[in-house]
Specification:
Layout (H helix, E strand, L loop, with lengths): L28 E12 L2 E12 L3 E5 L6 H8 L7 E6 L2 E2 L4 H5 L2 E4 L11 H11 L4 H14 L15 H12 L6 E5 L7 H17 L3 E6 L2 H7 L2 E6 L2 E6 L1 H6 L5 E8 L5 H6 L4 E8 L2 E6 L2 H15 L2 E9 L2 H9 L3 H9 L12
Parallel strand pairs: 3-8, 3-9, 6-7, 7-8
Antiparallel strand pairs: 1-2, 1-4, 4-5, 9-10, 11-13, 11-14, 12-13
Helix pairs in contact: 3-4, 3-5, 5-6
The structure holds adenosine-5'-triphosphate and magnesium ion (MG).
């Protein structure tokens, strides 16, 4: 039996191999990753990760810098060899049949790659030609995609004149020009301002409603993963630490509310006393008098907290009660906050100059 897979319209697409190498994947799965490992020398960048992505779902890989997200994408998209384990994309084994995989996927790498000296339309056309999109179909496809990403009126603008968000939208449109069935996007919104990020989310949702498409997206933005993804895999230090729908992940964390409060004059045992309040499942001291308290009884804990503070002569400078978020999920499964990891990874320490004492 061969994979039930039709040509996607671009002549570069092909029928699956019939030599038995391209095994059909389980019905309903677009991607299957099985105990995959990537080593660079002695360093393990991806450590025995397994997951499946269902057809037409938006699947998120969420993790801090260096977690192994891009390495996973690079293996799934045939750009780097797998050290151990296997991955199948649209029925093709990425190691044994990389060309089968390449014909079915679109990839938006982390770095921007559109040609700055060309116009939007020229960038799109080059890709359409590279992927052998028939000449008759090319214009209509490009017109449709530019409309979806809201760049129609800029089609003759040089790419170097575009904002980061517009350039990202161009690259997303360009990655769809050969009508891939599975779309990989590596941190498509990193570095964009909040308005442009929301525009990219809306665009991806819009594309999904127009086409049959499976999307695998990496991000380190919790809100993005929460809003966009049907299911999320949290990766940390190359390992998969949790995988589920955003709501199931949040429900798996003990406590249904999070209280963020800032205190002044708090005594040394304040964290311990907060722990003792009714309903509290965990307390994290974030520095500068700021505490993050998880509780199963938000309103009760809040009342007790204020009363305890008044009795102890502690000033409550600010108080915010909300539902648990993916931030809390990350802390629960890794013991650390994702935002701390991002700050650490971006911190740059000047190396000592030769001949100078550190
Ligand atoms: N070619 C390489 N040689 C050696 N180590 C590598 C190589 N590529 C990646 N790594 C290491 O593998 C780990 C995972 O890197 P990767 O780029 O997959 O992380 P990431 O989750 O995509 O992070 P970011 O959010 O910063 O893009 C990192 O520690 C990185 O330094
Ligand atoms: Mg990356």
């Amino acid at each position: 039996m061969v994979a039930d897979f039709k040509s996607n319209g671009a002549s570069g697409a092909r029928e699956p191999a019939t030599d038995g190498r391209a095994k059909p994947i389980n019905p309903g799965n677009a991607i299957e990753v099985d105990h995959i490992v990537k080593k660079y020398g002695d360093f393990t960048a991806v450590d025995n990760v397994s997951f499946n992505v269902k057809e037409e779902e938006i699947f998120g890989l969420l993790g801090p810098n260096g977690a192994g997200k891009s390495t996973l994408i690079r293996m799934m998209t045939t750009l780097i060899p797998i050290t151990a384990g296997s991955a199948r994309v649209a029925g093709y084994d990425v190691s044994k049949d990389p060309n089968g995989v390449r014909c079915t996927i679109g990839v938006i790498p982390q770095a921007l790659t559109s040609d700055l000296d060309l116009t939007i339309e020229e960038n799109m056309n080059i890709y359409a030609k590279l992927y052998d999109v028939p000449a008759k179909k090319r214009k209509a496809t490009i017109d449709e995609l530019l409309e979806v990403v809201d760049l129609t009126k800029w089609r003759s603008a040089q790419t170097k004149t575009l904002s980061g968000g517009m350039r990202r939208r161009l690259e997303i449109a360009r990655g769809l020009v050969h009508s891939p069935r599975i779309f990989f996007l590596d941190e498509p919104t990193t570095g964009l301002d909040p308005v442009s990020r929301v525009a990219v989310w809306e665009m991806l949702t819009n594309i999904k409603s127009h086409r049959q498409l499976t999307i695998l997206i990496t991000t380190h933005y919790m809100d993005e993963a929460d809003r966009l993804c049907d299911r999320i895999a949290i990766v940390d230090h190359g390992k998969l630490v949790a995988l589920d729908t955003p709501s199931a992940l949040k429900a798996s964390v003990p406590g249904s509310n999070v209280i963020e409060a800032q205190f002044e004059n708090a005594p040394a045992d304040w964290e311990q006393r907060l722990h003792g309040l009714k309903g509290v499942t965990s307390v994290q001291h974030e520095g500068a008098g700021m505490y993050r308290i998880l509780t199963g009884e938000g309103s009760r804990t809040t009342t007790d907290l204020v009363e305890t503070a008044v009795h102890a002569g502690v000033l409550v400078k600010s108080l915010l009660v909300q539902n648990t978020s993916l931030d809390d999920v990350f802390v629960h499964y890794t013991g650390r906050q994702l935002r701390d990891e991002l700050v650490k990874a971006h911190a740059f320490v000047m190396p000592p100059r030769p001949g100078m004492q550190p």
